[in-house]
Amino acid sequence: MANATELLPGSRTEDDGSAVVRVLSYNIRSLRDDTAALARVIGACAPDLVLVQEAPRFFRWRKKLARLAAASGLVVLTGGATAAGPAILCSLRATVERTEDVLLPLTPGLHRRGFATAVVRFGGARLGVLSCHLSLQSDERYVQGGLLLDRIAAMGVEHVVAGGDLNERPGGRTFRRLAEGLQDCWETAPWGGEHTSTPADPRRRIDAVFASPGIEVLGCGVPLGTPGVSEEDLRAATDHLPVLAALRVPAA
Questions:
Q1: pTM score
Q2: Which of 48, 74, 134, 236 could pair with 89 as two cysteines, CB 3.0-4.6 Å apart?
Q3: pLDDT of residue 6
């Protein structure tokens, strides 16, 4: 694994009301791996928002997700079983306006999918947030990409961040569909590592953070070399590497 050459900007609110927000997208594989390592990685990234995929969905899932959030210095904002896996964690810096968990149409024989969504404020900046985990099946995934864009448009918020496990590389048609209307944050301001799968031998970028055009992307990538984020923990935590982005969101 290559190391990040410099640290991403820290969270802050500017005098004009705009805000620098740190967003982490992470597939946590239903907490089936080393949860202590996972919490250390999340905490060391110092995120304001965590877009979770494969959150616990079954027995005592709320308690398990809450324990992870607390161990990472965060709270659960929304999602989990109610969104079929995606969830959002946040720091106490966020002021929450509303949340909504969305179940997507079920294709017989395939897993149920959904979106965890919220609208939050950081200082004078208002931000729509969406966490997703798209289908393994190409046609269903493409439809879900369109539903994601529709959901973002329906939020009624000028600035939006969306991210998750796309189960597709940047050249795929669903990935391209999302990148046509949103900024692929890695492409806009690459930082750290690029590939997210698998931690032992990362060769594919199938996890991503997207931002609406009015947001300034200060850097985005796998947080290699970030203080407190060890390669050992990254390998032990889950079967994906996380994507960390620093975004400057204008004041509403």
A1: 0.97
A2: 74
A3: 85
